[in-house]
Amino acid sequence: MNVHVLVFFLLSFGVREVWSHDGISPLVQSLDGEWNLWNSNESISLTARVPGCVHTALQERGFIQDPYFRFNDLLYEWISLDNWTYATTFVVSKEFRSKRQVLLILDGVDTAASVWLNGVLVGSTDNMFCPYVFRVQGLLKAANNTLTVHILSSVVFAAQKRNAHTAYSVPPECPPDVQKGQCHVNFIRKAQSSFSWDWGPSFPGAGLWKGVRLEAFDLLRLVHLAALPLYDIVRSSWSLQVDMLVDALVPTSAQITLDLPELHSSVTFLTNIRQGPGFTYTFTLHVNASSNVKLWWPNGHGQQTSYRLLVTARLLDGFALLQAQSKVYFRRVELVQESIAGSSGLTFYFRINGKPIFLKGSNWIPAHSFQDRVTPHVLEDLLGSAAEANMNVLRVWGGGVYEQDAFYEACDENGLMVWQDFMFACAMYPTEDDFVRSVREEVYQQIWRLKSHPSIIVWSANNENEAALATDWFHIPIWKRPVYFKDYVTLYVDNIMAVVKQEDPSRPFLVSSPTNGAESEREGYVASDPYDPRYGDTHFYSYLDDCWDWRAFPRARFASEYGFQSWPSLSTLRPVSLAEDWSMSSRFARHRQHHQDGNQQMLKQAALHFHLPNSSEPLANFTHTLYLTQVMQAQCVKTQTEFYRRSRSELVGGLGNTMGALYWQLNDIWQAPSWSSIEFGGKWKMLHYLAADFFADVLPVAFEDDDTLLIYAVSDLSQDLKLRAVVTVYAWSTPEPLCTLKSDLVAVLGGSAIAVFKGRVAALLAECGRCSRFSCLLAFRLEEGDGTQHGPANHHFLCSPKDALGLRPPNITAKVREDETGLVVDLQASTVAPFVWLDAGDIPGRFSTNGFLMLSRNRTVAFRAGRNTSVTELTQALTVTSLSDLYSP
Ligand code: BMA
């Protein structure tokens, strides 16, 4: 080697900036920006942003309206049936072309495409989740270089692949009609929900959804830098495993130095870098024993301290080859599956830094059909909302996309653990060589991109495919089943698991969700009943059983999916609808509902406890119905989540020791009814406000067992407390309490749930004088001996609100004013008001509390606006609804 080349890289978790040091070393030329775009017969030709997609370009240039408006998903089906070509022209400097190697890198192509540089086919793509790197040295000229990407219709491509698969069918062929989607999405490595889902439209997008660039270098390129923290239990010491993936043009001897300046730890290795594009190197840096390593903790359990890792590589004579920097965190993760005394199953819980953690959170789906619209603001808002609601985990569900780097960075910083699925959902998949090869590359690339993130605590290979196979969703005749079982093991075990274990042994791996975990593995990776509550995680949905009755729920070890639908508010629907759409019987209301019988199920579930709205005024009737679906959803998910949380320390008939509650689903992809707790656009539904309470560190939970009322104290704290329940009886007819009872103080150990109050309902009511199940309700809270309250106040209805005696319209008045904290709303009510709901219309923002039971005549609620607003504007926009407002006398 005769050239002393200075190669400088700055790396920070996948977001890589590279700069030229002296004009001769690795050069990067971004090809992002404005490209030309046309369809197959060139009847449409326009300019389009890269990164971006065809739909966004067409909308920005006025060829189409908002794809989300009314029925446009149907109207614009032609876009995904056509082929599209992206092209750009660019100059390349002499210096750039003189480098020994030049790479053309496309970080994300959606999906099946051929890539041409100056008329030469440089390669093809078939996987949205893989970056593509082509070696193009020699193909570039000084000016007028043209890069052309021909993208095939994903719908047509998937159908071709399906038709070529003649030996046996790979179900499902098509989504159910109610989803109005496209067929054969399991044959294309693309966001599976883009062909439609039960909460989302069919927009099989096309485009260059991530960046495009050229990189030129003479000697070597650092493709990936990853760091994994390792803990030595015997010595109680930390070290860092540093993995590097290097593309080297010539063999090189180098000195690699790893440095953690804040921890006064550093080490240098002499290593031989081999020639080739994909060799990996692993080094270990022991952290100085005298340094105090601060750990990464989940939200609610501690800080998320990060450190800087500096990596330099030098030639033996001291010249710098490479310099990189990365954020690193220290945390341990274990998935504990052990036998339990008194149960035939196994535990299933996560231990972080040695501490068992109850996982509280939700499931994440793609935040938009068109990923270029998922801006940093959208991510911050959604992830901030999750953390604010006291969540500590999100599951990145397997029917969407591996999220962008900014998503995982924000999760690291917010202490949000990530259960990361691989992108396979609700289907069988082919296992032909080319498909498996592409999947292996996808898994490899994603693992390397993501493995440094402490937030990711588990890899999970698919969503519900074990269950689909075991419980025969697709009606596969018995004699044909062995093929599908074999394919299942081939894809998820022999390939995906094999790559994961090779590239990242630092985390637990699950083959599916739901799964029985270790028990599924024992049964050959497909358990006879993957929903068995004694093992692993469980998904549970039941829309018509009474959700106020906790007996309806499985006492699972870990509930990773459960939920109920609701409608978003009118302010969210308004921009994509017309006044004629605003009724439950409209074509629009039916069109946006992608779950079979979803609208009826919501009303039936609501009708179990509430009268349905009866306003003769159609718009009021519609908005009241939207509101009521949110009340129903919030109450159902609250009841179910409280059941899981109070089950953490208990075994009943061998079931329980529940250690996770992730409801389905956090966010929305468009404006439609769904299971989400946050509407498209970021507005919190009632459920999300309630989640902030039912996920609180310390939570009082009440339930009835026969006629006995029990109040549990649930604590996720580390320290022990002594708490008692304070129960107050109210009549529906008046906000003045009738009487208050206090239990004895009970020791509530950190990380446990325990009964603090137990008493017969009849006796409790009798003590309060003239009170019945129908005329009274209970409010309760937890306090220490000195009266200090822990956790939020909670309440328990003794009858359905539809049967409540004395519940009258509360005539709530609201007055907006400004104080030193910002805008606040003073509420006044004449009587008890359930489910008080403040809606700021189009003004983005959050109330300090919402959807609450108002048990006093006055209450002040703060409003944190998402943009500049005023007392006048909020006064005009604000509506306040409570349950009694739904019913005209
Ligand atoms: C589960 C999820 C999703 C689906 C949801 C609601 O099955 O994994 O596939 O959207 O339920 O039906």
Structural description of this entry:
- With 889 residues, the chain is an alpha+beta fold.
- The protein is 20% helix and 33% strand.
- It has 18 helices and 49 strands.
- The strands form 14 sheets. The protein has a six-stranded antiparallel beta sheet, with helices on one face. Strands 29-28-27-26-25-34 form a six-stranded parallel beta sheet. Strands 37, 38, 39, 41 and 42 form a five-stranded antiparallel beta sheet that branches.
- A hairpin with a 2-residue loop joins strand 1 (9-12) and strand 2 (15-18).
- Helix 14 packs across helix 15 (618-646) and helix 15 (618-646) runs parallel beside helix 16.
- The longest helix is centred in the C-terminal third of the chain and has 29 residues, at 618-646.
- Bound molecules: beta-D-mannopyranose.
- Beta-D-mannopyranose (BMA) binds next to loops.
- For the termini, the CA-CA separation is 91 Å
Number of strands: 49
**Overall 3D form:** globular
Spans where pLDDT lies below 50 across 5 or more residues: 1-24
The portion of residues forming beta strands comes to 25-35%
- Please tell me the overall pLDDT: 95
State the helicity in percent bands: 10-25%
Ligand list: beta-D-mannopyranose
Sequence of strands across the biggest β-sheet: 5-4-6-11-8-9
From the alpha carbons, calculate the radius of gyration and give it in angstroms: 29 Å
Largest sheet: 6 strands, antiparallel
Structural class: alpha+beta
DSSP summary: helix tally: 18
